[in-house]
Amino acid sequence: MAKASSFPMRVFLVLSLVVLSRAAVDFASMVESNFPSVQAEKFIRGLNLSPKEDVNVVEGGAAPLLSEAPTGKKIVEKRISFPNLIGEGEVGFAVEDLGHHAGYYNIEHSYAAKMFYFFFESRNSKKDPVVIWLTGGPGCSSELAIFYENGPFSIANNMSLVWNKFGWDKAFFTEHPELAENDFYITGESYAGHYIPAFASRVHKGNKNKEGIHINFKGFAIGNGLTDPALQYKAYPDYALENGIITNAQFNKISKAVPVCEMAIKLCGTDGTVSCMASYYVCNGIFNSIMSAAGTINYYDIRKECEGSLCYDFSNMEKFLNINAVRESLGVGKIDFVSCSPTVYQAMLVDWMRNLEAGIPALLEDGIQMLIYAGEYDLICNWLGNSRWVHAMEWSGQKEFVSSPEIAFEVDGTEAGVLKTHGPLSFLKVHNAGHMVPMDQPKAALEMLKRWTQGKLSDATAEESNPEKLVAEF
């Protein structure tokens, strides 16, 4: 995803799929469509992480990237410079100094599909970690994270860009071979709780099988994700009751649907597409019943009211990315940008209820670090459901993790969350945050990432620091 200020982290952003959303879909028309039963698996298999062909780097200019990619090229990329960029001390930087890139990755085994990405270089050490960020949806754009969470800048109402002092920036490994030895981390939120475990398994498998360039894969982090639907949907009534969203009578009524949901999910795991579609509608009846009782509550942050289709106003982002000068700078031609695609959302519903926790234990056994973090006020991917699947996961360190004490996660001497950790597994409940932790608690999120990638997440306290010191010491 993206990131800001002088934080010396390299970020390779894939704009694919974003915020877990609550869209209404006509089931009858969906069944008539052709849903590949293994879409997610095909996507992962088709993603050649270490392309052997040469890449095509476009040297400046406003020529659309799509028209620059010759046949057989895996990647086409160009350095970019956003128009209307203003901010503290950053004015006057040349594009070469900023190291901002935009590009397309050609997806194999598809009908000429391409994946757009941003890549923001570190402004400090060449040894800084490489971090990829994926948002959820399914079917939304990771630009939501770039401009509203942990990207290098945010969008002002006058369509100018303002530097984000808590951004996560400051690659492909064939395009940028100088990064191949850097530590590599996969991060994201929401429905990326499905993508990230699959992506992590594929990278680790490629390394073990000596496929292409070795990637120095160290760990993955999921924020307020959907990973194990059976346990997470069961937690909905409990979370809603504990937070006063529903009454005891409503809780008793809604909870009767939980066993039916659990059975539907089991059938999804064994019986393919139709059962997975059925489980989506059966189980989301639980969530929809809670929302009927909740009224206009924002299910991404129960402290707020829901406004618009995504419960937040992200309209500035769509306006900005559809400005002609911005599209020319990115080299995307006349393609219109949309925050979320209903077409992609619907096509991925067959994958919704699949359990992606299944492949995680093998990664932990091989020493791959995993951080699950969750803002405490998110309903749709709440901390309670995430905590339950993390604690229930069977691996060699399960008993030790379960019995580990909770410790305060402190930032500037104040408790910013509650942490539990053992070996490669960590779970962090973040205070005063909803679904989008880097947006609600940007400084705590940056501190979390810094400590985690440095192996210091369990440090009980952190030295009080201003933003400049925080990014400088990373």
Describe the structure.
Residues 1-23 form the signal peptide. It is a single chain. By secondary structure, the protein is α/β, with parallel strands linked by helices. The chain is 35% helix and 17% strand. The chain has a single domain, classed as Alpha/Beta hydrolase fold, catalytic domain (Rossmann fold, 3-Layer(aba) Sandwich), CATH 3.40.50. The strands form two sheets. The protein has a twelve-stranded mixed beta sheet, sandwiched between helices. A three-stranded mixed beta sheet has the order 4-9-8. Helix 6 runs antiparallel to helix 7 (248-255). The longest helix is centred in the middle third of the chain and has 22 residues, at 273-294.
Give a quick rundown of the structure:
35% of the residues lie in helices and 17% in strands.
CATH level-3 fold name: Rossmann fold
CATH level 1 class label: Alpha Beta
* Extended strand count: 15
Spatial shape:
globular
The CATH architecture classification is 3-Layer(aba) Sandwich
Give the biggest sheet.
12 strands, mixed
- Can you tell me the residue ranges where pLDDT is under 50 for at least 5 consecutive residues? 1-63, 86-96, 168-175, 461-465
Count of structural domains: 1
GO cellular component, one term: extracellular region
Main location: secreted
Protein name: Carboxypeptidase
InterPro entries: AB_hydrolase_fold, Peptidase_S10, Ser_caboxypep_his_AS, Ser_caboxypep_ser_AS
